[in-house]
Amino acid sequence: MTVADKGTENEYDIAEPHAAAMIEALRAFGYNIQTAIADLIDNSISAGAKNVWLTFFWDGSESYVSIRDDGKGMTEVELIDAMRPGSRNPLEKRETDDLGRFGLGLKTASFSQCRRLTVRSRAVSHKSGTRRWDLDYVNHTGEWRLLRSAARGSEARLAELDEMEAGTVVLWECMDRIVGGAKTDDRKAHHRFLEMVEDVEKHLAMVFHRFLERPHQLKIWINGLAIEPWNPFLSQEKATQFLPEENLYIGSDKVVVQPYVLPHHSKVAQQTYEKAAGANGWNAHQGFYIYRNERMLVAGNWLGLGLKRDEHCKLARIQVDLPNSMDSDWSIDVKKSKARPPLSVRSDFKRIARLTRGKAADIYRHRGKVIARRSSESYIFPWLKKVKHGKLFYSINPEHPLVKEVLSVSKEHREVIRALLRLIEETVPVQQIWLDSAENLDQHSQPFEGVPSKEVREVMMQVYKALIKNGLSSTDARRRLIAMEPFQQFKELIASLGE
Ligand SMILES: Nc1ncnc2c1ncn2[C@@H]1O[C@H](COP(=O)(O)OP(=O)(O)OP(=O)(O)O)[C@@H](O)[C@H]1O
Ligand SMILES: [Mg+2]
Prior knowledge:
It is elongated, with a radius of gyration of 31 Å. The chain has a 7-stranded mixed sheet. Strands 8, 9, 10, 11, 12 and 13 form a 6-stranded mixed sheet that branches. The protein has a 3-stranded mixed sheet with strand order 14-15-16. By secondary structure, the chain is α+β, with helices and mostly antiparallel strands. It has 16 helices and 16 strands. It folds into 3 domains: 19-226, Heat Shock Protein 90; 241-367, Ribosomal Protein S5, domain 2, CATH 3.30.230; 383-496, no CATH class. The chain has helices at residues 19-25, 33-46, 76-83, 105-113, 135-141, 155-158, 187-207, 209-213, 270-276, 343-367, 401-407, 411-426, 430-439, 453-469, 474-482, 491-496; strands spanning 51-57, 64-69, 116-122, 129-134, 167-173, 219-222, 225-226, 241-242, 246-250, 253-261, 287-292, 295-301, 316-322, 371-372, 383-388, 391-396. Helix 2 (33-46) runs antiparallel to helix 4, helix 2 crosses helix 7 and helix 14 (453-469) packs across helix 15 (474-482). Strand 6 (219-222) and strand 7 (225-226) form a beta hairpin. Magnesium ion binds at residues 39, 42-43, 100, 105-106.
């Protein structure tokens, strides 16, 4: 028998899923509350909503969450269909701006968090309709019975929709996974609930930032407060590097890749830098950011390309834009939280990743110039890196003007100073510095970071005097200072010397 041939009744059995078992199984797609809510907001955006209002209401085990939007809404017939698990075939071609794919999200996301899902929706010039899945009822009856009304006492939680021309409200009640059987006055549970709301806010600020950034496109409100977008690329900052954008093709579908190298923390305001770290910190948010129809699926990951997360690469963030016509190529999942590059683009992705990682590491390497190789002539460094008996060793540069000046004292004092310098060289805490910076590069301050310019100037003045003493003109002495770590960062101060 071929697929096209539907066969006769004696050739097959119907093996329908058991309602009770199936509806419980639909709870286990692996969502958390953040990804579940994002999946519902996808639906609101696809329905053209300009506003999404989230309500998180704490009342112990009676707590509820609602998600209301002013999108185009659904007629009653459409609502019944929307409530059906598998409401649309994933193979169907979708509108280019549709964020859906599987015909499952509304159900799987909701069931992952609650046992009672009620949806009320209204399309323009239609009456509103209400439908409810109650997992206990389906379990009890063993049938896919979609109830036609809200639960007793829940009417008020849906009522705001009745004031609107069109829109949809999704209501989650009996949230066993979030609040369980907590009592209303359980302070710890209440605190956890509030923390969860914060996590949701951070997640939504991130995954929908492109929508939230454009004026008049989308606003998401949590208990009445608008969410501010979180942009991972600091693209407004002067010091952010935009590496060349690349277009990669799979058939006629285009993937747009825009790599960024974000600025070193000394180049942006502290608050900006801290915010840019993201919910999980700088190290966790490096790599590719994958967007499907501008909705973020992946928030920084090296996508199994064999590249490790590395403290030195944390400023590398690469934006990737996909259309929704490539879902199967990229193995998009129901939760919209994963994407895997197809074989045909992996080598390009690896190349772009290496390039961006290299540029990001350069930012720290440049800072590392404070220690010079011996061959470096034009710059004067206080420290030199040497190899002794095959081992690395850091020594104080005896040619440094200030060191020379200090050693030009009487023999007796010179011996003490030499001993001190030697002791410092022999005990540079290399291991400790290495360990600390492996954990967090930004923990180390830059030379003279946060030091008042008066103090910097005092140190600089001593070097300047030493140079003058060595016979340099004041212009030449200033020129030498500019070529000296770390004074080249303080050009204006150098200019003020000798005045
Ligand atoms: N807020 C909403 N406003 C209008 N229509 C909606 C809304 N939410 C869901 N729908 C309708 O219900 C259908 C089913 O939604 P559901 O999230 O289950 O699947 P999907 O969005 O089609 O695909 P996916 O499983 O990838 O999310 C949608 O295709 C849409 O037609
Ligand atoms: Mg959906």
